[in-house]
C-alpha cells in the first residue's frame, strides 16, 4: 500500500478545557498542533486538518482545513468523513487520522496500522493499548478506507455517534501500542502532566 494521506482531528469543542482549540495550546513552548504535525507528516503523503469555525486561525500551519460536512458536531467520525471526502478528491485510497490533543503518539503509527489491517484482511485498523488488564482502543487514531465513505455518511446521518459501533460492523483490526502512547490533553492538569512527560 502506498503512503496514506493524514488527517489531524481538531473538530471537537474542548468543553473540558473551557472551549477553544486545544491544538493551539503550548507544551514546552511549542503548540500541540505543531507537535502532532511533526509526528504525522513524515508518515503520510499529504496532511490536512479537520476543524470547524473560521479556518483563518490555522493559516500559520499551511494545511488544508476541512470542516465537518454534517451539522451539530457529531463527533470524531464526522472528521474522519471530511478526511475521506478530501482524500477521494486527491485520488487516495486511505487516510490515517490522529487527534490534535495527543502530542506523544508513535512515529510509526501509520505503518503499524497498515500492517494490522493487512494481516487481519480488514479495511479499518484502530490503535489500541493494554491498560489495567484490558485492551483500550483509541478510535481517533485509525486507518480508514476511502471506499467506505458513503457507508459512513449514511451511518452518521442515521444518528450513529459511537465510533466503535461502526468500526466493529466492518471488522476493524487493532494495532497494539505501548501504554501512554496516546496520552491526550483534556484538562489543565493533563497539560501539567504532559510538561513532566517532556522532561
From TrEMBL:
Enzyme class: transferase
Keywords: Cytoplasm, GTP-binding, Magnesium, Metal-binding, Molybdenum cofactor biosynthesis, Nucleotide-binding, Nucleotidyltransferase, Transferase
Domain MobA-like NTP transferase: 6-164
MF terms in GO: GTP binding; metal ion binding; molybdenum cofactor guanylyltransferase activity
Protein residues bound to GTP: 9-11, 22, 50, 68, 101
Top-rank taxon, per record: Bacteria
Pfam families assigned: NTP_transf_3 (PF12804)
InterPro entries: MobA-like_NTP_Trfase, Molybde_CF_guanTrfase, Nucleotide-diphossugar_trans
Primary location: cytoplasm
EC number: 2.7.7.77
Substrates-to-products reaction catalysed: Mo-molybdopterin + GTP + H(+) = Mo-molybdopterin guanine dinucleotide + diphosphate
Binding sites annotated in the UniProt record for Mg(2+): 101
Needed co-factor(s): Mg(2+)
Biological process, per Gene Ontology: bis(molybdopterin guanine dinucleotide)molybdenum biosynthetic process
Any one cellular-component term (Gene Ontology): cytoplasm
Subunit structure, interactors included: Monomer.
Role this protein plays: Transfers a GMP moiety from GTP to Mo-molybdopterin (Mo-MPT) cofactor (Moco or molybdenum cofactor) to form Mo-molybdopterin guanine dinucleotide (Mo-MGD) cofactor.
UniProt similarity note: Belongs to the MobA family.
Protein name: Molybdenum cofactor guanylyltransferase
